Amino acid sequence: MPTSNGGSNIFNEEERTLITLTDLSTKQVEVAAEVIEQLKRLFGETKPVEAVATVTAYNMVSRYLVALAI
C-alpha cells in the first residue's frame, strides 16, 4: 500500500491508512483499490464510506473557496 508519511512509527496502522486515503484523494483524486480494501479490513464496511465522504467533502469546500477567491 502506498504510504505518504515516510514509514513513520508516529501513527498506528489505522491512522497511516487514513492519512494515505486523505493524501491520495486530495493530491491525485483517485484512491488505489488496495487502500480502500485496507480501510475495509481495518474498519469494516461502513467506516471507509464515512472516511471517504469526509475527505472529499473537505476537498470540495477547499476547491470551491479557492475558485471563488474567498
Question: What would you note in describing this structure?
Answer:
- With 70 residues, this protein is mainly α.
- The chain contains 3 helices and no strands.
- Helix 1 runs antiparallel to helix 2 and helix 1 packs parallel to helix 3.
- The longest helix has 22 residues.
- It is elongated, with a radius of gyration of 13 Å.
- The protein starts with 12 loop residues before the first helix and ends with a helix.
- The mean pLDDT is 91.
What is the straight-line distance between the termini?
Answer: 36 Å
Low-confidence segments, given as residue ranges, are: none
Mean pLDDT: 91
Helix-strand pattern, N to C?
Answer: HHH
Number of helices in the DSSP assignment: 3
Largest sheet: none
What's the alpha carbon Rg, rounded to whole Å?
13 Å
What is the tally of beta strands? 0
Shape: elongated
Q: What structural class do helix, strand and pairing data support? A: mainly alpha
Q: Give the strand content.
A: under 5%
Percent helix among the residues? 55-70%
